[in-house]
Amino acid sequence: MSAQPIVGILGGMGPLAGAEFLRQLTLLCPATRDQDHVRAVLWSDPTIPDRPAAMFDGGPSPAPGMIHGLRVLEQAGAGMICIACNTAHLWFDEIQAAIKTPILHIVDAAASDLARQGIAAGARVGILGTTATVKSGLYHQRLAARGYAPLSLDDAEMAATSTPSIKCVKRNDLAGSFAPLVAAVKLLKDRGAAAVVLGCTELPLAAQAGDRAAFGVPVVDTVEAHARAAIAWAKGELRVARAAE
């Protein structure tokens, strides 16, 4: 009998997001005993340079640090890798080209979760995330290719709602992160969003700080969606290949 494949997790961006991914990987796995769970290796490196600063403020690129972590996971035997950070996927092509092991793109996992929740192509979908993620069009492009109509907030709205929520989580103030997240989701709901993607791995943590009924619309927890897809891969139900394959 061949050994169960290993899921690699690149974390540390921020540290709580990587830990939450591993927790969701455990909670969502259909298991009745220890041996039914997914084998996983987490490399959490909070020293990787800040992603928005690299994108907009001339800060150092996070790619070398991410590539180092990916190679550590590869050497540890990971057969597929998940990066527990949405904004890090802005460097997806560069870092995937540097390793042989396939990386599961978080936006593809989020799109699958929209379908799982019954949000059909053609629906308006709100996108929340860091300024870098939203402005780059990371989610907009991949979701539009699947037939969705993405919506996002303007700079002032992000500065007043989603950005403070993210910053609260990064300083472990989960209680303070919930109200600004609710305000951000409601802005998108009022513009016709049938669902909202929490496209920063800190935002699902903020969503846990209160009652999700306050959102008034389905949300895609991208940590949970990513973990579901990783479990499907580990169980042989999902193929993840490098883009060129």
What can you tell me about this protein's structure?
- The chain has 245 residues and is of the alpha/beta class.
- The chain folds into two domains: 6-105 and 225-234, Rossmann fold, CATH 3.40.50; 107-222, Rossmann fold.
- The protein is built from twelve helices and eight strands.
- The strands form two sheets. The protein has a four-stranded parallel beta sheet, sandwiched between helices. A four-stranded parallel beta sheet has the order 6-5-7-8, with helices on both faces.
- It is globular and about 50 Å long.
- The mean pLDDT is 94.
Q: How do the strands and helices of this protein lay out in sequence?
A:
Blueprint: E1 6-11, H1 15-27, E2 39-44, H2 51-56, H3 63-75, E3 80-83, H4 92-97, E4 103-104, H5 106-116, E5 124-128, H6 131-136, H7 138-144, E6 149-151, H8 155-160, H9 162-170, H10 174-190, E7 195-198, H11 203-207, E8 219-221, H12 222-234
Parallel strand pairs: 1-2, 1-3, 3-4, 5-6, 5-7, 7-8
Short description:
By secondary structure, this protein is an alpha/beta fold.
